[in-house]
Amino acid sequence: MEGGKMLAACLLCWSCTVRVVTAIQRADMFPYGTLSGDLILAEGDDETSRVLPLPKPLYFYNSLFTQLYVATNGIISAMDLPMEKQYVDDGFPTDFPVVAPFLADIDTSGGRGHIYYRVTETPSVLNRVAQEVHRGFPDAKFTPTHAVVATWENVAAYEEQTRTPGPSNKVNTFQAVIGYDETDSYVLFLYPKGGLNFFGTRPKESYNVEIELPARVGFSRGEITYLIISRTEGPHYSVTSDEQSVKNLYQVGNTGIPGIWLFHTGNRYSFNNIIPASSGGLIATLHSGGHGLPLDTTTPEYAEFEEYPDNTFDPDNQEEEDDYPLTGGDPEFQPAPSGGDHSESLKPAGPDAPSSPPEDPGRPGSYASEDVPLTSEPRYGSEAAERQYAPRNLPEAVAEGGAQQTQEQQPQVPLEVVDVYPPHRNEPRLSPGGHVVSVDEEDVDFDTGVIQYTTENKETCARFQQQCSQNAFCSDYTTGFCCHCRPGFYGNGRHCLPEGAPQRVSGKLSGTVIVGSTPVQLDNIDLHAYIVVGDGRAYTAISEVPEPVGWALMPVVPIGELFGWLFALELPNSQAGFKIAGADFTRRAEVIFYPGNQRLSIIQTGRGLDDHNHLTVDTVVRGNVPFLPPGAEVTMDPFKETYQYYPSVATSNSVREFSVLSADQGSESFSFQLKQNITYRDCRHDNRATALETLQITMERVFVMYVKEERILRYAITNKIGPLGAEPTEPEQVNPCYAGNHDCDTTAQCIPLEGQAFQCQCATGYRGDGRNCYDIDECAEGLSSCGAHAQCMNLPGSHRCQCHSGYEFGYDGRTCVDMDECSSSPCHVHARCINVLGSFQCQCQPGFYGDGFYCSQQEGQTVRPKSQCEQHRDSLQSGVELRGWQSLGAFIPQCDSDGRYRPLQCHGSTGHCWCVDSRGQERAGTRTLPGTAPKDCDRPDEPERPKTHCEQHRDSVQTTSPEGYPVLGAYVPQCDANGQYTPRQCHGSSGHCWCVDNRGQERAGTRTPPGAARKDCDKPDEPERPKTHCEQHRDSVQTTSPEGYPVLGAYVPQCDANGQYTPRQCHGSSGHCWCVDNRGQERAGTRTPPGAARKDCDKPDEPERPKTHCEQHRDSVQTTSPEGYPVLGAYVPQCDANGQYTPRQCHGSTGHCWCVDSNGEERAGTRTPPGTPPTDCGKPDEPERPKTHCEQHRDSVQTTSPEGYPVLGAYVPQCDANGQYRPLQCHGSTGHCWCVDSRGQERSGTRTPPGTPPTDCDRPDELERPKTHCEQHRDSVGTTSPEGYPVLGAYVPQCDANGQYTPLQCHGSTGYCWCVDGRGQEKAGTRTSPGAPPTDCDKPERPKTHCEQHRDSVQTTSPEGYPVLGAYVPQCDANGQYTPRQCHGSTGHCWCVDNRGQERAGTRTPPGAARKDCDKPDEPERPKTHCEQHRDSVQTTSPEGYPVLGAYVPQCDANGQYTPRQCHGSSGHCWCVDNRGQERAGTRTPPGAARKDCDKPDEPERPKTHCEQHRDSVQTTSPEGYPVLGAYVPQCDSNGQYTPRQCHGSSGHCWCVDNRGQERAGTRTPPGAARKDCDKPDEPERPKTHCEQHRDSVQTTSPEGYPVLGAYVPQCDANGQYTPRQCHGSTGHCWCVDSRGQERAGTRTPPGTPSVDCDKPVPVAPTQRPESVCERWRASLIEHYGGKPEPQQYLPQCEPDGQFSPVQCYGETTYCWCVDQDGREVPGTRSHDVVKPACLPSVAPPTTRPLPRPDVTPPTNTDITLLYAQGQKIGALPLNGTRLDAAHSKTLLTLHGSIVVGIAYDCKENQVYWTDLSARTINRASMAPGAEPEILINTNLVSPEGLAVDVKRRLMFWVDSNPDVIESANLDGSGRQTLFDTDLVNPRAIIVVSSIGTLYWTDWNREAPKIESSSVDGRNRRVVVSDGIGLPNALTYDSSSGQICWADAGTKRLECISPDSSGRRVIHPSLNYPFSMVYYRNHFYYTDWRRDGVIAVSKDSSQFTDEYLPDQRSHLYGIAIATTHCLSGIH
């Protein structure tokens, strides 16, 4: 006792110099509560839990226990407890095993506290137990596998009601944790501060004695049996002895942390008694630098502390700097040598409240300190949301974006825990870029002794963003940065891959493997893997594996498991490994084989992603493996692996079993243990990351194989990852996305919906419907992110940017910058390096000679000089490098190693190849077109004849620019084989053809335009007369530019057959016509514009009368700029025949019309906008009738641009007075005319070009006379661009009714007129400007007046020569003076001017208003009203003086007040306003609608509908008040609902919508096309074909919206198939294609040559070789597909010699795999990637080696088996009930070289029958082990398919789809007879119902498919069903209902019908591609060509219930049921 007091005193003194730590807080206890998975003990005084089974046994002392119980009274026992009175008031020991953290009489009745308990494998708990054990027992090698956590929270002592007036408020909280592994157990007791408030309880039977028994704390083994029947007291251990020692429990401890007590409580081998921890002393450790007595041990009884007073260690008395160091923890978090705050606290949650704060967070030295370590890991898991773990003693690792963390390398890898506080609430969300996640400064110590973060060394996105993937964004955090994959991609941020896309892996495998006692060295052999992410299938192939190792490594599936973990199919709440580890990781695994204890280590290192986004992994294997006999087979059942996750590491430990089947040993079972950890680099700065603790991988369908002949080792595993125990109880409950049995494309994501529903969505970077996806070429479609000096490289699902040569990625990892090559000193020591953009140059220093790479002072150079070829090549390439971009289209010569020209040269862009001589000159006759075999350049030239004149001419034409690009449009002569000019020459670009003589000179009169009948060049020329004046004039016109391009718009005279000028000349471009005299001079007054009645040129000229005012006005309008270009937009008055103003005037550009008086003055109120009926200028105004369809069409045409200028070239319909379409419609810009029906639709064949008489729309078409020269000239003018837009400004000749040039020609755009002769040649000096009378060339011209100079100075043409619209052009009278009234031709405003042209104030009037009398003098002006000020403030003119169109200008009345109705002049909207000009709500009407009566008062407005809100929300006006054109404005009916048809006012597209305004698919029509009937319901839209998808994927528009020319666009027919002939629209080449769009060799023709007849077969060299299996199979499938396979359908690909191609693919898809020489798929090679699998060619078998004998291997112990045909084998799939037993499936019979199609079963003889399409036989075999096939019929069979067996009559029936017959025979092949050979087109399936003797079969007749029946003898043939079917493939009999059922590959339905054609019903509406089907027990089982498997469908639920996919995937054909006995109704 005295000793104890002295020790206490010493401790009190010691506290002055020694840092003391107070008790733990409640938050520091292990997590507990229901959210942590705890069970709750029932309330009561004496309760015991239900048995708590332990997953693994627990050693307590040295005894093994498998279960525990938790009791109310503060104990845990390994046995069911007796009643409390037998132990609660007694001391230790107890007679049953007890762990007692606080044994006392506790009562939780009435809600006084709770007791929680659980057994757990949670890593956070196990790691903390491990940490505490290592702290208390530093030498212990203990890694717990399980823990039991029991918590007593706020429990009270039992109190008798008679003794106390009420319950006491004293409650206790404490915890016990038992951690154990296979050999040891440890127990922790935790007592938080304030957790013990009573220290004992009164005995229940103490009567009235006031005594209290202290609580007992300790352990008791219980009684031990000895000598069989005797029992004795076992060992025990007490921690407390009296009340004071109980009080000390939370103030001291034996781990160095007060309140935590640790004991070693059991061992498997030897254990005498409990061992307490002693590493940390009782209460504290020395302060760094302090001095004192160390307390380094504890004693079992702690007697010295009996009088230890309460609260001796007061935290408030401690110094702030006295921090308690956390000892024994993670090396990362060890305290610094001195100074700083080194403590890191444990802070688990209370029950279900993980984020509860500590009671005293600010207390220095507290165990619950809030100091957050900067090196902390992200937190993991829900059990301890703020706990973070770090692997202890792992190799050095670097946290992403942070400072390097070094760890000491140690042999063991125990995992330890480091806990930090949870993040604050309401944290800012994650965002890309420079976003900084905020953390309060007090939460982070930036000056710790562990790692210092300052602004200088902190890693940020700005500095290290290049470390992120290009498909990721970077986010900054307080301690560093993290990378996060963008939406649509997955990974760890440093490496991101497209979601849903398959992944490929490549790498090398090396190491030494000892097989038995033989070491085998593996030297960098290839390893490839392919993973279908959508269903978790991982295929691994290792090549060149020597034979002994190949067999021995078959069980080592863990080599391929890594890829399954990385890319497993994710179940909910899980992540595959790649999302955590990315592509940079290290996996270390050890495989221990039993029973031989061989050990093999596997190290796999992820090296990142290569240029193709493929993962690169290197594998090293070392160690021993057991020997396996050659030819052995290894099978491994599916298994589950549990992965535990910690920061930067994932671990697992498991035992596997496998079976080895060999010929010598039979079947043997072995096992191996796998231990592995995967280390990677995670990002520790984002503490928001969701934590993973434990996940489970389920590995299904494990397949291993070693192919001896090819030395290839293959693994195939299907992997799923999910939470522990996440599997549903019923397979039917699994969504197909999680089951992996969906039908999404392998490049698509399966998105689970409710129940069994799911959605297929193409992966990122792919396009399609989800079931067929195609890679998006981001590079071709302009979707890449590549910048300057970078080249886009397309990848599957993505792309990458590659810097051009001479450039490298800059600091951000994305921008290409110039590479300073000179920094690496590439030049010779005596040379100077010059860095240039994208390259560098080496120049020898003065006095040295050489190329710069080698310089010498010798006179002779030591390096050979560049050859001519190299100089030629380098001169082109240097230009490319200096420009820094790839030069497309330029020819780069190819040189050999000696610098000589390669004999064969090819142009990389055009594909042409040719032979060259030593000078690089092309050898004549050697050029070949792309797609044809190149010439053999090694053959010597035949003696070369000299080049002919034609060949010299042809070769001199420059077809390439100086920069090396092709020059298009140049004429290249055509020479025949002898080098002579071909008689007919054609221009490849313009299409003109002509005849030439032998000198190549054009023969006159033989030129024909494109499309015209060509001259017969074999006819001799007639003697040529001398050229006339007209012909000389015509031929002198320059129609070609100096560069050889055509000059459009030039006037070419028209000459008659005698060479004289035709009386009428017309300009082919402008369409003007005029009369000429015999000299070709224009006769004045005869010029007519296009479309006007032409002058009779045979009439003599009449004397000209003086011009009227109208004519002078008209002729004074300036329509041509000083440079001679047309000025568009000016108003030109219209005069009648007498020169008077026509009553109605119209503006040719704007379309406005109005009435005028005799002076030409506008009559107020008569102006009408374009498209509306013009006012009757003789009648008063009448009310306006509703607009007709024609008027609405006319008014909807956009004739004004967004800037307000007129839009020229748009077609405006013409309507008659009643608003109906005029029968004859003409295009105002192009001059074309055509007839229309009453709906305005063009009548075919009625269109006429400008200048030709329009068709009589009431007459049928008449034969057209041949075109004259004028008409040919006129029609040859290009008035339309390649994109279909009108080309304005071209001159179009005007021809008279006889096709001759009109004497007067005028340019329709510029307005210039001139005279022409009979050949259309302009007569010099006759050209007049627009509006001016024809010039008399003998009269001198008077000087221009000021008005005329002003008028002529207005710029009406842009610098590029295009007209400038909207400019104001002054009007001058006949004397050149300003007319008193001036009007703006575009805006319609008018005003008065003085004699200087200055506007007189107050005289301006808007269009349509009464104009001012300009003869009246000015009046004094009244003040402007608000309306006038508003009106005048609107800016209608730009600073440059041009009108600003589109602005709203208020309308004011005569008094200056707002008119009640306001209208917008540009948009046509009108509305009512009040006297302040404010719009009255609800009065706005669109153009053409009935306007509101503005005199009526406002009515209450109904709420707006959705359509009206949508319509009104469209922004049609810019912020500046100008109209926004091009926006789509919804159309609503009078009730505010969407009109069924919606049209876009700008684009003209129309479509149907539903009542929500959503577009109905397939209803959109382009402008001018027949519109859809929106009252018809939607029809299902067929999916796009391969041709349509190809066509639509071609990029024809640049990102800026301009057309991309030169791209080849496939042509598809109405069914979406490739048209047989394809032509390139730019180059003119044409060629034939097959059904897949592939060019047929030898069919390409250049432009101008006759095209090949694509309906004729391409000639094939004859061959005597018989048809191979591959070719026969291919032909059969083509026939099966109806001659036109779909792009995704499979056709075998055969080599020229008939053998199977090594790579086989589904149609034109990239779904490919490898096959051996027999066409069998090589497992593990299936790929769905742009890059096809690299198939290693199979080793041809020796000629002496026989094929394996086709023995039968029947399934064992199965009653019902499905037999299916799969190409060269028959498979057996047992049924377990109605479920498919995939685990016991096997191959029944392998038939090399066969194609098994039909299959049937004879239940009486237990025999299987089948048809062989390859051998053309019918066969059978007994289903007995070792049985061999028997051929029954082998003659007169062509394409035997469906087969049926009548077991009752012993007959078989089959269909032959080539001769189209149905036959029968006895089962032995005898008695063969034909049942039907007529009315069959393509019979497919056949069944027989033996019980009733009826046959049923399907006929694939695509024109009329049907299902028929007859009796078995061929009588009573009839059609059962013929409507509503497409491709009836599969047929079966439902014995339960007596119905016939079929599966249709066309309609995709499974249907049934009664034999009498009644009772038809659909079982399933959407199958994939069924082929054959059987029925059994209310289930249909069919083979599916889309899934390549067997699918089960329930008849009752109409749902898919099961699926089986064979390991070797190829088409499955027939299916049959094999049974051990015949089934009634079926057989």
Your description of this structure?
Helix content is 8%, strand content 26%. By secondary structure, the chain is mainly β. A hairpin with a 3-residue loop joins β9 and β10. The longest helix is centred in the first third of the chain and has 16 residues, at 2-17. The termini are far apart. Mean pLDDT is 79; it is low at 1-20, 280-350, 352-456, 879-888 and 1738-1748.
Keywords:
single chain, 2027 residues, mainly beta, 8-stranded antiparallel beta sheet, disordered N terminus
Main beta-sheet strand count, sense and barrel state:
11 strands, mixed, barrel
Structural class: mainly beta
Treating each run of at least 4 consecutive H or I residues as one helix, how many helices? 19
Q: Cα distance, first to last residue?
A: 98 Å
Unreliable spans: 1-20, 280-350, 352-456, 879-888, 1738-1748
Please tell me how large the radius of gyration is: 48 Å
Strand order of the largest sheet: 27-28-29-39-38-35-36-37-31-32-33
Strand content: 25-35%
As a percent range, the share of helical residues equals: under 10%
Report the count of strand segments. 100
Overall morphology: globular
Mean pLDDT value: 79
Explain briefly what this protein structure is.
The chain has about 2050 residues and is mostly beta strands. The chain is globular and about 155 Å long.
